[in-house]
Specification:
This is GTP pyrophosphokinase family protein. This protein is of the alpha+beta class. It is about 60% helix and about 20% strand. The protein has seven helices and five strands; from the N terminus they run H-H-E-H-H-E-H-E-E-E-H-H. Bound molecules: guanosine-5'-triphosphate (GTP) and magnesium ion.
Length: about 230
């Protein structure tokens, strides 16, 4: 396999310098945009870490179990734009994709999800673009999570950019369920009747795990109230 490091000099040798400059000039806005999304991820992750720190001081427990972040790969960006018949340009990425920057916050309890979402949305530099509450209204397959599309400013050398971030908040149980569901959605070679049995079982598990979340939250509140 050709090493990545070797590609650039080989391409450079094949095309003249002017062509190379054109390629690099066109890549630069994309590289910059991806860097902005990365900065926005850091910004939002820090916001959640700050809230976690404050709550742990005040209530002696952490509402956040873990935070996972991801920057959508260029490959997935191109696939999504192509699928939706949209132009593949930096402008089109900014306008049409809400999930290039993703932050997933995993909490122990459902009430922490709403608490954190409220605290985040109260911050005056956070603009809410869209809410999808799949906890109050689970998807037909049983998927539960609270999704927020927000815009946060990032401050550069001499300008400010507003960048979109998809925030998914879920409990440990919802996350556990979603990863199993994700595995099933990627398996394309399961016979249809077998797949529908698995989907039904997953739906039952979603209900059972939601009941468990509720019972555990009730117990936690009874302990805290003592
Ligand atoms: P995309 O799926 O990203 O094109 O956007 P959408 O408009 O369908 O947004 P939605 O908010 O419904 O879902 C966005 C993300 O939530 C997905 O990329 C997944 O990470 C997660 N998600 C949504 N539905 C499911 C589901 O049924 N199962 C699992 N495992 N994850 C889901
Ligand atoms: Mg997505």
């Amino acid at each position: 396999m050709i090493k990545q490091k070797l590609i650039k000099p080989v391409v450079k040798a094949l095309v003249n310098n002017d062509v190379m400059d054109i390629i690099e000039d066109n890549m630069m806005p994309l590289k910059k945009l991806m860097a902005y999304y990365n900065c926005a991820i850091m910004q939002v992750e820090t916001k959640f870490n700050v809230l976690n720190e404050e709550f742990s001081l005040e209530y002696d427990r952490n509402p956040i179990e873990s935070i996972k972040t991801r920057l959508k790969s260029l490959d997935s960006i191109v696939k999504k734009l192509t699928k939706r018949n949209l132009p593949i340009t930096t402008e089109s990425i900014k306008e049409n994709l809400n999930d290039v920057a993703g932050v997933r916050v995993i909490c122990s309890f459902t009430e922490d999800i709403y608490l954190l979402a409220d605290c985040l949305l109260q911050q005056d530099d956070v603009k809410l673009i869209q809410v999808k509450d799949y906890i109050k209204n689970p998807k037909p397959n049983g998927y539960r999570s609270l999704h927020l599309i927000i815009e946060v400013p990032i401050f550069l050398k001499d300008e400010k950019k507003n960048i979109r971030v998809e925030v998914q908040l879920r409990t440990i149980a919802m996350d556990f369920w979603a990863s199993l569901d994700h595995k099933l959605s990627y398996k394309k070679d399961i016979p249809e009747d077998e797949a529908s049995i698995l989907k039904r079982e997953l739906l039952e598990c979603a209900q059972a795990s939601s009941d468990l979340d509720q019972r555990m939250e009730d117990i936690k509140n009874r302990i805290v109230d003592k």
